[in-house]
Specification:
There is one protein chain. The chain is an all-alpha fold. The protein is built from four helices and no strands. 31% of the residues are buried.
Length: 141
């Protein structure tokens, strides 16, 4: 009975963590490249910031679910790393919280661009943490 629950929990954790990794990859790599190829600098920057702001909370939720399922499996290190990754993605809410539309001053644009760069960089780091979490989960650590 408990082994069946453990197997189900492992499958659920791998599914949730895999979905979070895929969504994170799209938010940090695929979509920003497409935005900067097709749009101008300021509008692409705004679109990437909006995408990160909107996508970070669902990704953090998937990572939290994966962390809970990992801990139920008995892979405590993988669950802890998934929890760290979830906190990292949720931190994008705070990094990008001061965004206001309509600001056209040069200093404001530079600040928004640096906020986007920090959010993308941290998302990529925590995406790597999520990948490590999945690998550890598969090994049962």
């Amino acid at each position: 009975m408990f082994t069946a629950l453990q197997d189900l929990s492992t499958s659920l954790a791998v599914l949730l963590l895999g979905m979070a990794i895929g969504a994170g990859w799209i938010c940090t790599m695929a979509a920003p490249n497409a935005f900067f190829d097709d749009l101008g600098g300021q509008s692409a920057n705004a679109q990437v910031r909006r995408l990160l702001l909107a996508g970070s909370t669902p990704i953090a939720g998937m990572l939290l679910g994966g962390a809970a399922a990992s801990i139920l499996t008995g892979a405590y290190v993988a669950g802890a790393l998934a929890l760290v990754a979830a906190c990292g993605f949720f931190s994008n809410r705070w990094i990008l919280a001061s965004l206001k539309t309509g600001d056209t001053k040069a200093g404001t644009q530079r600040q928004k661009s640096s906020q986007r760069a920090v959010a993308v960089g941290l998302s990529m780091v925590f995406l790597l943490v999520a990948v490590i979490s999945v690998v550890l989960l598969l090994f049962g650590v």
